[in-house]
Design goal:
With 515 residues, the protein is of the alpha+beta class. The chain contains 14 helices and 15 strands. The strands form 3 sheets. Strands 2-1-5-4-3 form a 5-stranded antiparallel β-sheet, sandwiched between helices. Strand 7 and strand 8 form a beta hairpin. The relative contact order is 0.09.
């Protein structure tokens, strides 16, 4: 006659028939089994317990051994929780925290796969789904199940369980220990579970102030199973910490997103189309929102104004100051753009009056239209007109900003804008302008110092690296400013433009002169 089937508990092998013994079973039980009965028991409870079978009390030595075993189990659990919460605390983005939550929770409840759905109850987002051991197609299959049949969806929607008279707020978990064998479950759920190869699930909510319910997480078992009382207790402790950590990251994510959106709105929505000039730009905002900016402004008579700059500080205040500075420079450029020194001088005076606690760097370039040079003196009788239209001229002035770089078939060199202090640092700012004549097919690169800082190298080496990156642009693509900026960024920032580990803003603006 075969032994009766013992149901499997998640993460624990089926129990074997207990051997005959004469001592109290509590002495031979493992700490995990002891703590599974009552995770909140205290050592005094263990020593004061009276055996149900009426056997004599344990000797003092045996009671001490039992208490030590239980304490060893608690210490092991606390050490595990400490390690897992430390790993979670080191995450700095929402996505990383969600992945770590899934991985740690799966280890605690004895599962192999799972998914977490982030859907804040206040409706302000972001909403996302992250899987553990599940691809996008697998998650898509799960989402085809009617929402009322999904345990995590019932948690998110606050739907009551059948026969639940306590209300949805009292429910903190939903366990489905045998999906193939449970006849009351939705047939589509059983079909999807069979296709993906899972047979049980355990779902819990993620709740933290001030948002309230921020999401839900569900772990999936390959065989019919459910977490033990000890495992539920441990994952409950971990989940409380994880919910608070996710709430902080959620607030940080929203503030960064708001600053990024504000900054995007303050920068040009598109680059202008100027005859004879092709423009391209790449920019990235640091996680706290910075004050780096750029502008490309069409001016009267076919002229063009180009500008880059940076405001000290970070966060919404710096972003707002950047917007005011850029708007002021546009106004001065329209009125007196042909004199970049006058534009920056007026901007410095305005900053000193309205932004006394801030400083800023700026670079402004005024590009004359082709053939805008003064008319030549009359030719003598019988003389002939030689040559074509006058070359395009650029007038530049800088205030503590990085020098631009001119790139062509015959040269790749920095334009030495004269050394000058940033705006707002001197009683009276003054610096001469620089004039250059870019040849047909040459490209002018304007950039912010964040491009150099993100390399992590000293400034002299970062400048040399930028020069090498520009000189190394393949000749076949030098006529395409989009390809030029992409090549420079690949060489300068191998980790990518949107590197979450860097707090530096990056601006790279290219102007390619076709005539």
């Amino acid at each position: 006659m075969s032994a009766p089937h013992v149901p499997k508990v998640a993460g624990i092998e089926p129990a074997l028939p207990a051997p005959a013994h004469t001592t109290d079973p509590r002495v031979t039980r493992s700490p995990a089994d002891a703590s599974a009965d009552s995770p909140s028991d205290s050592p005094s409870d263990a020593s004061a317990h009276t055996p149900r079978d009426g056997s004599p009390d344990l000797s003092p030595v045996d009671r001490i051994a039992a208490v030590q075993d239980r304490l060893a189990g608690w210490i092991s659990d606390l050490s595990t929780l400490h390690d897992l919460t430390e790993r979670l605390a080191r995450t700095r983005t929402l996505e990383d925290a969600l992945h770590e939550l899934l991985r740690a929770g799966a280890a605690l409840v004895g599962a192999r796969r799972g998914l977490v759905v982030l859907a804040p109850a206040d409706g302000l987002g972001p909403e996302t789904t992250v899987g553990l051991g599940l691809g996008h197609a697998d998650i898509g299959h799960i989402e085809t199940v009617p929402r009322r049949a999904l345990s995590y969806a019932r948690i998110l929607d606050g739907l009551p369980e059948p026969g639940d008279d306590t209300g949805p707020d009292a429910r903190t978990e939903i366990a489905e220990p045998d999906i193939p064998g449970e006849k009351d479950l939705d047939p589509r759920l059983r079909e999807v579970a069979a296709r993906l190869g899972y047979a049980a699930s355990y779902a819990v909510p993620l709740t933290a102030d001030p948002v309230g319910r921020t999401g839900a997480v569900v772990w999936l078992y390959d065989e019919p199973a459910e977490p033990s009382a000890r495992q539920r207790h441990l994952v409950g402790l971990y989940r409380a910490h994880a919910s608070e950590h996710l709430a902080r990251l959620l607030e940080l994510h929203r503030s960064r997103r708001a600053a990024r959106t504000l900054r995007e709105e303050l920068l040009p929505s598109r680059l202008p189309r100027i005859p004879g000039v092709r423009l391209a730009v790449r920019h990235s905002t640091g996680p706290h929102g910075g004050g780096d900016w750029y502008d490309a402004l069409p001016l009267p008579d076919g002229a063009l104004g180009l500008a880059v700059g940076s405001v000290t500080g970070s966060g919404p205040g710096a972003v707002a100051a950047m917007g005011r500075l850029r708007a002021s420079l546009r106004a001065y450029a329209v009125m007196e753009g042909e004199d970049p020194v006058a534009v920056l001088s007026d901007l410095e005076l305005l900053m000193r009056l309205t932004e006394p606690a801030r400083t800023a760097t700026a670079l402004f370039a005024f590009s004359e239209p082709p053939g805008a040079a003064p008319a030549s003196p009359p030719l003598p009788a019988g003389g002939e007109c030689v040559g074509g239209p006058a070359p395009r001229k650029l007038l530049l002035a800088g205030a503590g900003h990085c020098p631009p770089l001119i790139l062509g078939d015959l040269r790749a060199e920095f334009v030495e804008t004269s050394l000058s202090a940033p705006l707002g640092m001197l009683t009276c700012w003054e610096a001469p302008s620089v004039e250059i004549e870019p040849a047909r097919g040459e490209t002018l690169l304007l950039y912010s110092d964040g491009l150099l800082h993100r390399t992590g190298e000293p400034m002299d080496r970062a400048f040399a690296r930028l020069h090498s990156a520009a000189a190394g642009v393949p000749r076949a693509v030098r006529h395409d400013p989009e390809a030029v900026v992409d090549h420079v960024l690949r060489v300068m920032l191998p980790q990518g433009l949107d590197d979450p580990s860097s707090e530096e803003d990056v601006v790279l603006l290219a102007a390619h002169f076709e005539e």
